[in-house]
């Protein structure tokens, strides 16, 4: 995890080794693919994507994994898909040694968008 406060997501990603940078960039691209209208910021020291001026999803690089926060409720099948990556309430961890399921990242973000839009109605 970065030692110093970073101003942009690029700054944040550049604090990691090059092999991890590429994974973080792919997570970033997956989020943008799922919600292209999201804006980027740093919140609590980690990359965060906002939708309609509210935080939607964040990710963080760690020593052995990437974490994604928060998680949508989803249905039983979705929860089963998340099960191998769950490590705590409201977040999941993708270990570097197993690879990041980028399609699942996109699914998570799309569900977060749907939940956010439902809550705003």
Quick structural gist:
The chain is of the alpha+beta class. The chain is 40% helix and 26% strand.
* Arithmetic mean pLDDT: 91
Report the portion of residues in β strands: 25-35%
For the largest sheet, list the strands in their spatial order: 1-2-3-4-6-5
Which structural class matches the secondary elements? Answer: alpha+beta
Query: N-to-C SSE series?
Result: HHEEEEHEEH
What Rg is obtained from the alpha carbons, in whole angstroms?
A: 14 Å
Oligomeric state of this protein: single chain
Query: In angstroms, what separates the terminal alpha carbons?
Result: 37 Å
Shape: globular
Largest sheet: 6 strands, antiparallel
Uncertain segments are none
Number of strands: 6
Q: What helical percentage do the residues reach?
A: 25-40%
Count of alpha and pi helical runs: 4
Structure description:
It is a single chain. With 121 residues, the protein is of the alpha+beta class. It has helices spanning 9-13, 18-34, 76-82, 102-120, and strands at 39-43, 46-51, 54-61, 65-69, 86-88, 91-95. A 6-stranded antiparallel beta sheet has the order 1-2-3-4-6-5. A hairpin with a 2-residue loop joins strand 2 (46-51) and strand 3. The chain is globular and about 40 Å long.
Key words describing this protein structure:
single chain; 121 residues; 4 helices; 6 strands
Give the arrangement of secondary structure elements.
Layout: H1 9-13, H2 18-34, E1 39-43, E2 46-51, E3 54-61, E4 65-69, H3 76-82, E5 86-88, E6 91-95, H4 102-120
Helix pairs in contact: 2-4
